[in-house]
Amino acid sequence: MGTSVTISDATEHDAEQILKLQYLCYQDEAALYGDYTLAPLTQTLDDLRTELGRGRVLVARLNEEVVGSVRGTVDEDGTASLVNLIVHPRMQRHGLGGRLLAAIEGRLAEDLEARRYRLFTGHRSQGNLRLYRKYGYAQVRTEEVSRRLSLVWLEKEATPRAYVTSA
Hints:
By secondary structure, the chain is of the alpha+beta class.
């Protein structure tokens, strides 16, 4: 491509691009589970703008285009909740998801003193599960949401290595 993807904090000006990318990225998940009412597909722009003010939201950019994003918050006991890790379909399978994951972990550890990380994905989302396990996450529980969907919750402890960001 000739141009590097950079990772940085999202701004309010990124909200519309993030929302459009989120909608695109969750189409496959919706089809996999036969459910087009997944929260990322029904989130409004106003809700996303509100979310930008909480925790950390990172974006991956190729020039001016947002091609990836991830969000995270940290609660009072130091547990970081990571959500909505998305990568544009044309950019997948090139390590960008892992870069975003490492970057949000580092940012949350440095800025908000995260001591552990928690995330979830659907039980049929094998690519997501593979990525999370590759980055040290272990399954801690499964929660049945419906006959079609169970959420797999994964966690890992923050380590000195997790404090180093790739952004």
